[in-house]
Amino acid sequence: MDKKDLLNSVTVAKFIRDGYLRYDEVVSKELCQEAKKAILSGELNAYDHVGSPFSSIWNNSTMGKIFRLTKVKGIIESLLGPDPQYDHHYIHTNKAHTKGKANLHQDGDYDTRNYGFDLLILFYPEDVTENMGGTLLIPGSHFRKINSNIIKRYQHIVGQQQLICKAGTILFIHSNLWHSGRSNHSGKDRLLFKVRLSPAVKQVRTWNTDDIDNAAIQPILSDSIAWHGEHQRLEIINTVRLWRYMTGDSTSEFKTKKLWGTKLADIPKVIYQDSLRSMDMTDETV
Amino acid sequence: MNESQYRQKILILYLGNSNLDSGIVGWSLYDGTTTVEFDPTGNEDPPYQSVLEAMRDGWRVIQIPTISAPQIGREHQTDYLQFEFVLERMELIDG
């Protein structure tokens, strides 16, 4: 893809910190109408072939047009790399006047990857108003690998974000981000089209890295998220680790004079350094 | 007191630290006094600022989380909410 159509490093840093990116009204009203018709017709009810190159799916359909919009394609490639694989898609229809039980979860069971992740793409072909109980996200929850639905007990987390949006909005979500739906108190059904994609390459420098040295990046990665509480520093370590994996940076932070993370091997040399800062990258080749 | 006329409410407060006076990071309410289904919305404020504040309002603490060391090799791993305090209140129901 042309570099100008890819995300920049500052935006990728925000994704790594929060676990999602939101793009409002990125799909035209006309395409949203077409998509709604396609969804309601049932033509998208069946899974396609799991593991297929995403480029081979929906070639002559409305969904193909949407997911091949330059903007959408650029975001996907920036986060997953070229030629991602189709995992599955799902149509969520939350009927009018239905109560949703507390349903906070992470898709899948205990992701065992150290750094790699899939992308959940949530496309809303219709407006989502406050009383429709749109998707609820927990920013900064994607480093907490859990067993799918076990966290249903958690009803509220400080800083949770419930989606209110116009038709054509798309969320791009790290596959381990905690999320749920809520009750739809409106008189309209709420529609959501989700597709999950997997990387076909190692997710290293897959975006436009021209601004890789932008001074705004370090504060973004070191930002605090209120609900992390006393685990703040651990979460920052995990955030920085993912950033360093995705930028292919295996150098010591001591050498680059950034003290928010170093390799375990450096600790004996600088014994006064707080061991919490260690960021052993040796379990994964960078 | 006729025990059969009381029902339990459970309030779970998740704190940022083991200290009962530290800030709330999450919360859940399970109400045995009603049959109305729980219906959370996305933008509510926490009912209290800390466990201590809830205690001062009459809630009884029935679970305090254990402080434990991480497994070797998992020192930097975070997962479930660690500081989970369970509180209860018994309320008189009609009839």
Instruction: Output the radius of gyration of chain B.
Output: 16 Å
Per CATH, the class of the largest domain in chain A reads Mainly Beta
Shape descriptor of chain B: elongated
Major protein interface = A-B, 35 and 30 residues
Q: How do the strands line up in the largest sheet of chain B? A: 2-1-4-3
Structure summary, number of beta strands of chain B: 4
Roughly how much helix do the residues of chain A carry, as a percent range? 10-25%
Oligomer: heterodimer
**Computed CA radius of gyration of chain A, to the nearest angstrom:** 20 Å
Reading the helices and strands of chain B in chain order gives EEHEE
Low-confidence stretches of chain A: 262-286
Supply the number of helical segments of chain A.
6
Percent helix range of chain B: under 10%
Task: Give the strand content of chain A.
Answer: 15-25%
Number of strands of chain A: 9
Summarize the structure in short.
The complex is a heterodimer of chains A (286) and B (95). By secondary structure, chain A is an alpha+beta fold.
What does this structure look like?
- A five-stranded antiparallel beta sheet of chain A has the order 1-7-3-9-2. Chain A has a three-stranded antiparallel beta sheet with strand order 6-4-8, with no helix packed on it.
- The longest helix of chain A has 16 residues, at 232-247.
- By secondary structure, chain A is of the alpha+beta class.
- Chain A is built from six helices and nine strands.
- Chain A folds into two domains: 3-198, q2cbj1_9rhob like domain (Jelly Rolls); 217-278, no CATH class.
- Chain A has helices at residues 9-18, 29-41, 62-67, 70-80, 217-221, 232-247, and strands spanning 20-23, 85-94, 119-124, 136-137, 156-157, 161-162, 169-174, 179-180, 190-198.
- Chain B is mainly beta.
- Helices cover 6% and strands 34% of the residues of chain B.
- Chain B has one helix and four strands.
- Chain B has one helix spanning 51-56; strands at 6-15, 24-31, 60-63, 83-92.
- Chain B has a four-stranded antiparallel beta sheet.
- In chain B, a hairpin with an 8-residue loop joins strand 1 and strand 2.
- The longest helix of chain B is centred in the middle third of the chain and has 6 residues, at 51-56.
- Strand 5 of chain A pairs antiparallel with strand 2 (24-31) of chain B, so a sheet runs across the interface.
